[in-house]
Write a structure and sequence with these properties.
Number of helices: 25
CATH architecture of the largest domain: 2-Layer Sandwich
CATH topology of the largest domain: D-amino Acid Aminotransferase, Chain A, domain 1
Number of domains: 6
CATH class of the largest domain: Alpha Beta
Radius of gyration: 28 Å
Strand content: 15-25%
Helix content: 25-40%
Length: 664
């Protein structure tokens, strides 16, 4: 092997992958594959003594290319050395006391306070120069704009978007390919916006993990109010109003158990993480160890040694979406990973599929990225004979490969593609839209193939095909009657649900509700709204406003809307309900009994002025769980934070303005 040339090849591949990941919010290889190539490069550098100038082992972070103002950091922001072995952590810590914390998966930000006020916020950038995001940081959910300490203060932390907020935002986006890929990419784009209104809508949180300061004298530490330990500084930062990364004091004897405890909590952890960080608690000792060219010696990162399993690739499904993107999905023989059976993993795009050199029958290894998301790690066979479909699996029309930001993806360009129709119909009848039971994707596919459904309004005329439907396999008279009743029920619908059912790009149910409320349930005003009117609504930005206006400006789409309006009647929603839950935040868990489902309970809470979030935090007022005595993770968290746990009976009393005698 020509080692210098291999190093050049690795540098090029890794830098291209980093560019895609950090700047274009896309992926051309898995994290596991990146780490493998990176480790190979490190080994070659150590063996040859050669380190190329543009090697990712030298540079830190993304190259700064945006239009934001740039600023040099007072001292370089280094990345951490890493290991996947708990034993290596124990050896590294030795007889010293350490602090073990989550390694958060977001964007590192440096905050500067002067005279108690937030003056400056800068991203990590390339480690030496970052981007100024001060206006954006002021919109973070939990960043103090003013703190008690009036001296100069510089601290580092991670800006993140929680899984609950990420899932909520994605739930409001109809098209699969328009959904955000992961919280880290969404956070990176949100923090680096030129318009901080967009940042504010993304619910970015900040968790402090370090003070940027030299070792202070005893007198200076006493004056500032903290001692020269990591835990002391974390405690002091909390007093200043900052949320700090969750952490625990460890020794070599307790370290392994604490790592396992972190691992056990990953499935319920609402804050994205890609590992752990171990630091010496004694800051003076840690700093005395100095640093390498790239790594400080006072901390080390722990990456989860992803459990891998070998299996056989049996199929690659090509899944068409409503807008034409055809996604490849690997299907393989069942394997057990992290306690669950896994049979499928997204391949993301054609670029990744080709990089893996896949072929049916190949032996592959699979894992769960960050112990959560199934991924293909490696192809052991690399037969590389998998054909990219020349025709759409749904309609049989020609496909086309498109290159977007260096990533190849497959598309069906046929505007009449049945998959596009099925996905459109499926969205229209879904629970949060028109809520028509009995029209699964399989049934819709049959109805479309038989010519029963060409336009959305045809759903309201399926009775014309009664005889054929009753005779269909899997149907019968009872199923037909239930379907007809569900269709009849859908003729009266909330205006917001109807707007959501139309599948306007980016307009979820929550946005639809806000728009309907803003225009006083005047549908004519809504469909003729201008972009300027829409952006004046809290939660609606330029992109959503344009998509909304473009939709109703399209004559073909308006024809569909008018045909539907001839079939339905809008519910007149009452806006005078007593706001008994105004200003209160709830989390719902477990099964419900007095409501049809948790979504109905959520709507009821919102109608009375309350708010529902996905995870228990210090901002939660009540947790609703009929099993109030269980030891579920949410119940445990609520008890830790002294948050009342309500049964449905208790909640109904609270909603009715009654005094709840016992808040568990």
């Amino acid at each position: 092997m020509d080692k210098p040339n291999r190093m050049k090849e690795l540098v090029s591949i890794l830098n291209e992958a980093s560019k895609a990941y950090y700047q274009k919010d896309t992926e051309i290889m898995s994290n596991l594959e990146y780490d493998k190539l990176y480790d190979e490069l490190v080994a070659l550098e150590q063996e040859t003594g050669i380190v190329l100038a543009n090697s990712p082992t030298v540079h830190v972070g993304y190259e700064v290319l945006s239009e934001l103002e740039k600023q040099e950091h007072p001292s370089p922001m280094l990345s951490l050395d890493k290991t996947k072995e708990v034993g290596a952590l124990v050896t590294w810590l030795g007889n010293h006391e350490g602090v073990l914390s989550w390694k958060l998966d977001g964007l590192t930000v440096v905050l500067t306070y002067e005279n108690g006020e937030l003056k400056n916020a800068v991203t990590r950038g390339n480690g030496e120069i970052g981007e100024v995001i001060t206006n954006n940081a002021k919109t973070f959910v939990n960043v103090p704009k003013k703190i008690p300490y009036e001296g100069n203060l510089v601290l580092r932390g991670e800006a993140v978007i929680k899984y609950s907020d990420f899932n909520r935002m994605n739930a409001e986006i109809a098209e699969a390919e328009e959904k955000y890929k992961n919280p880290r990419n969404l956070c990176s784009g949100s923090v680096r916006q030129l318009n901080n209104e967009i940042t504010a809508k993304r619910h970015v949180h900040f968790y402090a993990f370090a003070l940027v300061a030299d070792v202070l004298s005893e007198e200076q530490m006493q004056e500032a109010g903290y001692d020269n330990t990591m835990t002391g500084r974390f405690a002091w930062l909390r007093k200043q109003g900052f949320d700090v990364v969750e952490h625990f004091v460890v020794t070599k004897d307790t370290l392994e158990d604490q790592v396992m405890d972190f691992a056990a909590r990953i499935p319920d952890n609402d804050i994205p993480s890609d590992g752990l960080v171990l630091s010496y608690n004694d800051i003076a000792y840690g700093k005395s160890l100095g640093r390498t060219a790239k790594f400080p010696r006072d901390s080390i990162a722990f990456k989860w040694a992803d459990e891998q399993a070998e299996t056989t690739l049996t199929e690659v499904e090509w899944s068409p979406s409503r807008t034409g993107l055809i996604n490849p999905v690997a299907v393989f023989e069942p394997v057990e990973l992290e306690g669950t059976t896994v049979t499928r993993a997204s391949l993301h795009n054609v670029s990744i599929l080709r990089a893996l050199g896949l072929g049916l029958g190949d032996k592959i290894t699979v894992y769960k990225a960050n112990m959560i998301i199934p991924q293909v790690a490696e192809n052991l066979t690399r037969s590389n004979d998998l054909e990219i479909p020349a025709t759409c699996p749904a309609c049989g029309q020609p496909t086309t490969l498109q290159n977007v930001n260096g990533v190849q993806s497959l598309y069906c360009m046929n505007p009449l593609c049945s998959a596009k129709q099925i996905k459109g119909f499926s969205h229209f009848v879904s629970r949060n839209a028109m809520n028509i039971d009995g029209l699964s994707d399989a049934t819709l596919e049959k109805f479309i193939a038989m010519g029963f459904l060409k336009d959305l309004s045809d759903i309201f005329h399926l009775a014309k095909h009664k005889d054929a439907i009753v005779e269909m396999e899997g149907f019968g008279q009872k199923s037909y009657d239930n379907l007809m009743q569900s269709i009849e029920n859908a003729r009266t619908v909330a205006m917001a649900k109807f707007i959501y059912s139309l599948g306007i790009s980016g307009i979820g149910l929550a946005n639809a509700k806000v728009i309907v409320s803003y225009f006083g349930q005047d549908f004519d005003r809504i469909i003729h709204a201008t972009e300027d009117e829409l952006v004046a609504i809290d939660g609606i930005g330029d992109v959503l406003a344009k998509a909304f206006c473009d939709f109703f400006a399209n004559p073909q789409r308006m024809q569909i809307v008018n045909e539907l309006l001839a079939e339905i009647t809008f519910e007149q929603e009452e806006n005078d309900s007593e706001q008994t839950l105004e200003g209160r935040t709830f989390v719902i868990t477990g099964s419900v009994e007095q409501f049809a489902n948790r979504n109905e309970l959520k709507e009821y809470i919102e109608k009375l002025g309350g708010k529902v979030t996905g995870s228990v935090s210090k901002n939660t007022d009540y947790l609703i769980n009929n099993d109030v005595t269980s030891n579920s993770s949410k119940n445990k968290k609520a008890r830790e934070l002294s948050i009342p746990i309500l049964s449905e009976d208790d909640f109904v009393k609270l909603a009715n303005g009654e005094v709840v005698s016992e808040l568990r």
